[in-house]
Amino acid sequence: TTSTQSADSAATDEQDHSESGDLEFVIAYTCKHLNDREAKWSTTEKEAYAIIHSVDVFRTYLYGRKFTVFTDHQPLEWLMRKSEPAGRLARWASKLQEFDIVIGNRPGKSHQNADTLSRIPILPIAKVESKTEPQINNLEKEWTELQHEDNYCRRIIENLKKIKNGNKKGNINGYKLNEKQELIDRYGRIVVPIVKIREIMEENHDHILAGHLGITKSLARLQRQYSWPNMRSDVMAYVNSCLKCARRKAFGTSEAPLQPLPPVNRIWERIAMDVVGRIQESVKGYKYILVLSDYVS
Question: In this protein, which residues make up the domain named Integrase zinc-binding (predicted)?
Answer without folding.
Answer: 193-250
